[in-house]
Amino acid sequence: MNDTGAGTTSKRKAAIWLAVGLGLLLLFAANGHLVYVAMTSQPDCVDHIRQGEANAAHSRFSAARSSCSPG
């Protein structure tokens, strides 16, 4: 009897499960990093058009409710 096929199938399954595990580990690490950055970053105010202002040099979009004091 020749069992060379069984060893190859077993190694292939192990390689697939290892790849799946590494992929899941990468997914969790990336999401963990995004959560960390979202919780620790404090962005500064960004220059934008305030409600009621009309300035052609800027974009036509404005903040819905600005938390920055007018400068």
Throw out a few tags for this protein.
rod-shaped; single chain; 71 residues; mainly alpha; 1 helix
Summarize the structure in words.
The chain is mainly alpha-helical. It has one domain. It contains 1 helix and no strands. The model has no long low-confidence stretch (mean pLDDT 77).
Head-to-tail CA distance between termini: 84 Å
What does the radius of gyration come to?
27 Å
Number of strands: 0
The portion of residues assigned to helices is: 40-55%
Number of helices: 1
SSE succession: H
Blueprint (SSEs and pairs):
Layout: H1 4-40
Short description:
With 71 residues, the protein is mostly helical. It has one helix and no strands.
